[in-house]
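Fold this: Arginine utilization protein RocB
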Amino acid sequence: MAVWQTKDQLTELLCSLVEYPSITNSDEEIAIIEYLYYILEDRDYYKKRPEHLNLHPLDDGRQLLTALVKKGEAKETLVLISHVDVVGIEDYGSYQNLAFYPRELTQELHKNTDDLPKEAVRDLESGSWLFGRGTMDMKAGLTVQLSLLEKAMAGEFEGNLLLVAVPDEEVNSEGMLAALPALAEIRDKENLTYKGALNGEPMFSKYPGDPAYYLYTGSIGKALPGFLCYGKETHAGEPFGGLNANLMVSYLAQEMELNEAFIEKVGGERTPPPLSLMQRDLKFEYSVQTPQAAVAMYNVLYMKQTIKELNDKLLQAAQRAKAKIINHYHHQASFYLEGSQTSAFNPDITILTYDQLYKEAVDRYGKMEVDRRQNRLVKLRDQGDRDFSTTLVQSLASLCKDISPMIVLFYSPPFYPAVSSHDDPFIQQGAKVAMDYAKETFDEDIEVVEYFTGLSDLSFIGPTSATSSLSDLTKQMPIHGNGFEWPTEVMESITMPIINIGPLGRDPHQWTERLELSYSFEKLPKILTKVIHEMFK
């Protein structure tokens, strides 16, 4: 019996998923995967074929789910990709207790429309929108994929569907990285051929109030470059006896934040400029000594640029910051030092990549000693990937402090390769079918966009659109080989064409996150059904 097909049924299923507060790294992130297993194992298909429904553990105790529906002896398989985690709810303020109860939250907002932006009020009063954390990003997409899986169980399609539901998409994508070997194992065990992957991430507006509908044939790339500023400490009573790392990092912020040089244009698409995601000094106790080191990390998005091109832009920004830092120091010193007074400290700044700093340390102390120090840090590690990356760089900088002040460029996880199937005839045909069917059946215009700008797990399964080698990145990534490894071989072995056709929503990662129900649960399932039929022809 079909239980996930009508708008009301899908709304009920969505609410049951949203009620799991599956914030990344929480226990509920584990619980929702178990809930998915529970509701699927009760279906007749999996009662007869329990081997097709599996939980796969991650190294940290979390787990992902795979659910295969086979059509007889068919080999051709489409992979459906969803993530179950959501971001936190601190932004909900007084509505936090209702953030994971969509119906109740939506009802409460009707009583408090003055709290909402005007556009959100219009949506609320239309009666077609459901508010709540995860309604849009991306439990609605998972809900629709479960409805497609149900159709496959009933024999709807002439091929196989494989649902992959993963944790951790919102932080490090460890769920998708762990899914890669699982996908390879299932492919080999079941003798499958992966024709393509369909993701269900929601549409992202190109600008506030954007009325257009989109599907995506690729996913934007993201790097997280960091700069360690290693200054020269001094007493606050002798301000020109050193160089404050906080001053250094502030000038880097001016050179990086919203810098137009990083906006990449491909066709009619553009990447947003960089934003700082973290900036702080590394002095954790109070004293009148200036901070010796500070760090900043930036969200840098790209489409077809190479890592080398990104590195060049980042190092150019560091060079501009260097000139301004030195000029600032001398300009301010001119007001303080009088007559023949001079400072014994004359700042210069060395700019290095992490790889260059590592080689500098090895030249001084030998590879065995440098690796011994890093291995010790790995053994004692109690930090997340970004903080631990910073610790590894700072440790090397302290070994080479005689060349300070210095600015060191490095990268930290997460990294999302830019991927695209925009020119793939198979995906082009699927996109055309979606557009034609939506127009003919629902009078809805859907526009094809090459890159999904919200970041997605498709980055680890689709064809890369940049030509650079991953080693260009990993050699500048301190954590690579120190407790973190990219599954490069597995990624290459299961690359497949990709497309993202998802629900309609607004305000992802905001407290006004909401889902439009009529398109998402009445039209989208039919559009996707049509596309899947076409892909199995």
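The chain has two domains: 7-219+418-461+496-536, 223-415. Residues 109 and 432 are 39 Å apart (CA to CA).
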